[in-house]
């Protein structure tokens, strides 16, 4: 019975997400999160333009709240709207932007490459855009565009890679747009950090002091070594000059 409850809850969240996706398409819908609280159900909606989600005088929010309560059976639903800080790093928003550009008649390659440049310019570690359907002719095909570093399999591909999907209706048929983004703050489990070297002060065979050398300290040490070498060269030149002066005096005598 517990498994049935999980499946039912997952289906309900999927239906809510599809409903909000359809209603808030023009507002730049970027996903939602459902949180169960003692006072009711909190639905957090992420959007590129929060004003369009709220509507004039809160009209849209009230309509959505009533729908969530009556049709989806949520207990005392409360909607919180949050603005997406960087829309270029939200795969749902970027998938809808690609769909809108394709609907306006732009070529799929130009749309994909311009979107990838925008996403990578926002600081993403990697991005993958997949457009499938009748993109070249009467036969279905798949075009995949990848830039940067992005995980393709294993647990990191599920935990760290964000995904978004959208569809667009064109004359040849329906196209599916799939966007996968690896955010800039992602730290992979196999990442290695190289620590800077340490300087140790040893007295009587024991380490008295140990501290890390910064890059500028290493540069200063290199400069000191170069100055010492220059001083040695100057001393050699002075010794040679003294020897030449002694030889000249002996020849004069």
Can you offer a commentary on this structure?
This protein is an alpha+beta fold and 253 residues long. It is built from 7 helices and 9 strands. The chain has helices spanning 2-23, 50-54, 59-70, 91-103, 108-121, 155-159, 215-252, and strands spanning 29-37, 40-47, 77-83, 126-133, 141-148, 162-169, 174-182, 198-203, 206-212. It has a 4-stranded antiparallel beta sheet with strand order 5-4-7-6, with helices on one face. Strand 6 (162-169) and strand 7 form a beta hairpin. Helix 4 (91-103) packs antiparallel against helix 5. The chain is elongated, with a radius of gyration of 33 Å. The termini are far apart. The relative contact order is 0.08. The model has no long low-confidence stretch (mean pLDDT 80).
The number of helical segments is 7
Structural class: alpha+beta
Largest sheet, in brief, is: 4 strands, antiparallel
Euclidean distance between termini CA atoms: 118 Å
Order of the strands making up the biggest sheet:
5-4-7-6
Low-confidence stretches: none
Quote the average pLDDT. 80
> Which strand-content bin applies to the residues?
25-35%
Residues in helices, as a percent range = 40-55%
Radius of gyration: 33 Å
Count the beta strands. Answer: 9
């Amino acid at each position: 019975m517990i498994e049935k409850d999980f499946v039912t809850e997952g289906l309900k969240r999927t239906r809510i997400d599809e409903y909000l996706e359809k209603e808030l398409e023009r507002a730049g819908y970027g996903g939602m999160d459902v949180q169960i609280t003692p006072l009711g159900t909190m639905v957090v909606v992420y959007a590129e333009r929060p004003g369009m989600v709220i509507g004039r005088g809160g009209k849209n929010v009230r309509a959505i709240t009533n729908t969530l309560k009556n049709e989806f059976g949520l207990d005392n639903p409360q909607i919180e709207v949050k603005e997406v800080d960087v829309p270029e790093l939200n795969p749902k928003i970027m998938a809808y932007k690609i769909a809108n550009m394709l609907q306006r008649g732009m070529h799929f390659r130009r749309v994909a490459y311009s979107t990838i440049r925008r996403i990578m310019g926002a600081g993403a570690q990697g991005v993958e855009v997949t457009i499938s359907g009748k993109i070249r002719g009467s036969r279905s095909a798949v075009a995949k565009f990848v830039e940067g570093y992005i995980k393709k399999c294993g647990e990191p591909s599920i935990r760290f890679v964000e995904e978004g999907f959208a569809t667009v209706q064109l004359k040849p048929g329906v196209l599916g747009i799939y966007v996968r983004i690896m955010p800039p703050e992602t730290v992979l489990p196999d990442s290695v950090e190289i620590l800077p070297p340490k300087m140790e002060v040893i007295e009587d065979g024991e380490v008295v002091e140990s501290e890390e050398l910064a890059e500028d300290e290493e540069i200063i040490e290199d400069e000191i070594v170069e100055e010492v070498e220059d001083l040695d060269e100057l001393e050699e030149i002075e010794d040679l000059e003294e020897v030449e002066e002694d030889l000249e005096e002996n020849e004069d005598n």
